[in-house]
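Thread: Modeling a multi-component assembly for a lab meeting

Hi all, long-time lurker, first post. My supervisor asked me to bring a structural picture of a complex we are working on to next week's group meeting, and I have zero experience with this. I have the sequence lines for every component (639 residues in total). Could someone generate the structure of the whole assembly? Inputs are pasted exactly as I received them:
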Amino acid sequence: MITHIVQRLLWSVLVLVIVSGITFLIFFAVPGKPAELIAGKYASKETIALIEKRLGLNRPKYQQFGMFLWKAARGDWGESYVSQQPVMGAIITAFPKTLSLTIGAVAIWLLLGIPIGIVSALRPGSVWDRAAMVFALIGISAPAYWLGLVFLKVFADLLGWFPIGDYAEIARAGVFGWAHHLVLPWITLALLYAGWYARMARTQMLDIMRMDYVRTAEAKGLPPRVVIFKHVLRNAMLPLVTMLGMDVAYLFGGAILTESVFGIPGIGGLAWRAIRQRDLPMVMGTVLFAAVFIVAANLVVDLLYMGLDPRIQHEA
Amino acid sequence: MSSIAADALTGATTEPVHGQSPWRDAARRFAADRWALAGLVFLFVLLMCAVAAPWIVPHVMHQSAFKQHMMDKIEVAGRQVDVVSDDGLPVGPNPHFPLGADLIGRDVLSRIFYGARVSLLVSALGTLFAMAVGILGGLLSGYYRGLIDIVISRFIDAMMAIPVLLLAIALASVLRQGSVWVVVLILGLVNWTYLARIVRAEVLSLRERDFVEAARALGATDRMIMSHHVLPNLIGPLIVFATLSMAGNILLESALSFLGVGIQPPTPSWGNMIQDGMQFYSVAWWITLFPGLAILLTVVSFNLVGDGLRDALEPGARDRRRL
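Re: Modeling a multi-component assembly
Sure thing. I ran the full set together rather than chain by chain. Output:
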């Protein structure tokens, strides 16, 4: 058991190293030298050489990659080529915004998606079920940025209920102002996920209601409410918890489209700007930051399942 | 009824109602799914519109817009019409421009038809590319296992640990922009991992089956086993993947174009049309609303058809979800 956990941990670290490798490899192809980017258009050759030396950019690529890994492992994620500020600092500044966006969206999509899925599963084929599945289908098929624009047009522009974009700090605007600015982004993001959760909850419920032990529970005369809540729901929700863990991990890496439509300066926006500016350290930082959450969530899910179900032991 | 009775008399096996071939059964199940059929009809009409765009588009404004002044009247169906309203905005939906005109006076409906050509073509090629790489990767790691499997699987894990959009944007920003092929390449590169995982899992279970064992005992080579015994059994999951992946690709392509790293103007794509109208969404809403609806309807249709195909081809399969 212990060896297995250690092994899984090492795999996870390896995956992160490969992620850095892929990112590094992608940006190998960038035309132009980063040092020229830092020094500006009219810098002399000497200045550029000096910068290259200071950042280690004159060394072979594999050495640069090794250096990056070594520093990253010790918590030094380098400095942005553009702003000259530490990458870690920029990520720490941006993360609360992404966190704010994620938390609200998660709450809304759970409150919306799961009840819809459950009610659908209780009356499969009914009018409600069909309407709910159409709603879910639209949710999973709509482009996020477009949905955001439609909401802005209707609820901010036409009805004037919410401000148009922009992010408000809790410290400055208070909890109400913060939430007021975030309602539309929350709903936009939540709708994209609520569809998946409704569908998932519905299939899970239907699968479990077909099982023998549920029939037994019904046969021994338990009231339907007890069967649904105690026997079905509890088991049906387990895979949804896993899914939730993965989704939250993904969103911590930034929701580029939603953030860009509503002007939220989160991790997604940071990554997006960094990629556009070819700011390699910032790109590496944001990609790794996102990957750490995803890999960690994967690890937790695997270990959890291993703990819950002893049969899945040495499958990897 | 009578056939069942007859079978009972002759002692035939169960399930005689319709059982000639699994494909015919699947087709029957699919045909009974009205939602999936509706999706299929929409996609067919869209495809026809896309193919026939040069002939059916009423005014090919996006080709001539640069040659005229905004305030000039243009000729539509033999009549002179304005492309700019009295308040200086492009005209909204009217009989001459069913879905309005865009910021430089191009007909939105025409551009949606032309955008369909681009979106469908790019997504389809991206799907094919992802399938080629995904099948190869999945077959190699599932069939040979061992070191190959470890290397490929870890690489897939790493690819999947990078958020799809982030990976796509990173690739787009370093590859030469403006080419449709670059977008195809990106769609393929970010999508093959899903299929590789599916194929690997299927192959892992297939290779232990008796008929593969028997083929091997008869002296079949690896290549023969893969092409004659493993691949044919993967056709169902592959068709389902291809359809659902079209839905994902259309969304991803439009997102990239919206962000300005996908299809570049003046080539119309639904994503860059939305980007185009975004700054004026509050006054000229039709420029963003209609391309978005086109994306939504198309993706919904692909999802409907994909769900229908999955229910028909892989009964018992679950919702497979892409992130």
